[in-house]
Amino acid sequence: MFGLFKKDPAKQLREQYAKLLEEARDLQRKGDIKGYAEKSAQAEEVLQKLEALPKS
């Protein structure tokens, strides 16, 4: 009951991860391979943070 209004950090990270993947996809479609690589690396960092969260 007390955790009712507690924010879920995993949800925020999943949303950020999905957004970064979409941006990377769009950059790749435009032919910006360097930008794609940078966005993919950022997405990978977010994924590692997500996996490091304790399972509850």
In short:
With 56 residues, the protein is mainly α. It has two helices and no strands.
Structural topology:
Elements: H1 9-30, H2 33-52
Helix pairs in contact: 1-2
Structural write-up:
This protein is an all-alpha fold. It has one domain. It is built from 2 helices and no strands. Helix 1 packs antiparallel against helix 2. The mean pLDDT is 91.
The SSE string, one letter per element, is HH
Instruction: Count every helix, treating DSSP H or I runs of 4 or more residues as helices.
Output: 2
Structural class: mainly alpha
The count of DSSP E runs of length 2 or more, i.e. the number of strands, is: 0
The percent range for strand residues is under 5%
Overview features:
56 residues, mainly alpha, elongated
